[in-house]
Design a protein that fits this description.
heterodimer; A: mainly alpha; 2 helices; rod-shaped; B: mainly alpha; 9 helices; globular
């Protein structure tokens, strides 16, 4: 159990093995581990970002849906108002048309009445002349009594 | 289980604690002397020691082929497993082996990050990984029943001695600790300069005029680092191995065999903690020492 060359041999072996480990074993393993760690960290960060994005998108979608609903409601309201307005306008028009028609009818009637009155007046004059001729037994000179006849016709 | 001669408890233990040594024969060896009858060698020849006595006579010029070999094999297994993982390493979903390796690498990386305060040293973390896994593998050999590999080696491969747990050999543990010590000295000089390193040893903790005292104190402090590092691991594993050997001695009658089996299982389970802990301690202390080597002290 004495100290022998073995000690030096083991020391040399120690340096050789440590050197091999340092050159060929340690760097690839630790580098691979570090790279994988980074990959995983990146992946987790990406997932985090994606879930954040998703949340934002959902929020945006909700907002947009709300906007769309509000817009639709506004449109419906507007349409209803427009319809009511149109109905009102139509009513107004109908009323005006009716009034106009009534007016026209009334004017027609007036005209008819006037015309009838004219006709009547003429007829009255003729009748009056004829009656007077019968009464007087002679022809009445229409020219001579025109003023009288006109006066009569006006009184009718 | 040394072949030849009755098997005694002492002989059994002795056999288990003897390394397979390849070394240089010197004048002290019986086989190198003129009176030698068989398997003679010349002085200065290199060869395997046939007995524990021969091995110890060889002195420094010898290699513990068994522990050194197992140490290299285990180190290569470490490089093979982790090298395969490194080749597979992708940023995609990791599979079985890569998962396992990454768990260990991540554990070491965290530990080094929290222990080693200085940035920009690419060596410390891989060194910690190498130490932890390699020492753990070396310690793990302790859980293989003590007779399995030596029995195969002796009866099928005709290898007289086979110590399979490298960390029960002080050469191995001190060899690694010495490697760490060289790194400590290297980084101390690199970061503080030779003079800075010397002044740290000489002008501290007492005033400058007492520098011989400082030098002795700090020198002991410095040397104690690798020595304690190596001997702690060696002591723990050697004691653990010794207990396994003593338990192995109990196998005999039915009652003793059952008791021995229970004891061996209990000790092995406990030892799982010990071997992991010792590998961990060796690694952490190496990192701490290297961290200290990087600390540049302010001038007083």
């Amino acid at each position: 159990m004495s100290i022998t060359l073995t000690l030096i041999g083991q020391s040399i072996a120690f340096f050789v093995f440590v050197w091999i480990c340092m050159k060929a074993i340690w760097p690839p393993i630790t580098e691979a581990m570090a790279a994988r760690q980074k990959q995983i960290a990146d992946g987790l960060a990406a997932a985090e970002r994606a879930s954040l994005d998703l949340e934002l998108a959902q929020k945006r979608a909700t907002d947009e849906l709300k906007d769309a609903k509000a817009e639709a409601a506004a449109l419906v309201e507007e349409a209803r108002q427009r319809a009511a307005q149109m109905v009102d306008e139509a009513k107004e028009d109908a009323r005006a048309e009716g009034a106009k028609l009534l007016e026209a009818a009334r004017a027609d009637i007036e005209r008819e009445v006037n015309r009838a009155r004219e006709t009547l007046r003429k007829d009255v004059a003729v009748l009056a002349v004829a009656g007077a001729e019968k009464v007087l037994g002679q022809a009445v000179d229409a020219g001579a009594h025109a003023a009288l006849l006109d006066d009569l016709a006006k009184q009718l | 289980m040394a072949s030849g001669g009755p098997l005694t408890a002492e002989g059994y233990i002795q056999h288990h604690l003897t390394n397979l040594v390849y070394g240089q024969f010197n004048e002290g060896h019986a086989r190198a002397q003129a009176s030698c009858q068989e398997h003679c060698v010349a002085v200065g020849d290199w060869g395997f020691a046939q007995t524990a006595e021969e091995a110890s006579q060889m002195g420094f010029m010898a290699i513990n082929v068994d522990t050194m070999g197992w140490s290299l094999v285990l180190g290569l297994i470490f490089l093979f497993i982790f090298g395969r993982a490194a080749k597979q390493a992708t940023t995609g979903v990791p599979s079985g082996l890569l998962n396992f390796v990454e768990t260990i690498v991540d554990f070491i990386d965290d530990l080094v990050r929290s222990t080693f305060q200085h940035s920009g040293n690419a060596l410390v973390a891989p060194m910690a990984l190498t130490i932890f896994v390699w020492v753990f593998f070396m310690n793990l050999m302790d859980l293989i029943p003590v007779d399995w590999i030596p029995f195969v080696a002796e009866h099928y491969l005709h290898i007289p001695f086979m110590k399979v747990v490298p960390s029960t050999d002080p050469n191995i543990t001190l060899g690694m600790a010495f490697g760490v010590f060289m790194l400590i000295v290297y980084y101390s000089i690199l970061k503080k300069g030779a003079w800075g390193f010397f002044s740290e040893l000489a002008f501290h903790p007492f005033p400058k005029w007492m520098f011989p005292v400082n030098l002795i104190l700090e020198g002991v402090n410095l040397i104690a680092k690798p020595v304690s590092l190596g001997l702690r691991l060696f002591g723990n594993l050697y004691a653990g191995e010794m207990i396994f050997i003593l338990i192995a001695l109990m196998y005999g009658g039915l009652v003793m065999s059952v008791a021995g089996g229970v004891l061996q299982l209990a000790w092995a389970l406990f030892h799982v903690l010990v071997i992991t802990l010792q590998a961990f301690i060796f690694m952490v202390l190496s990192v701490v020492y290297l961290n200290q080597a990087h600390d540049v002290m302010e001038e007083h």
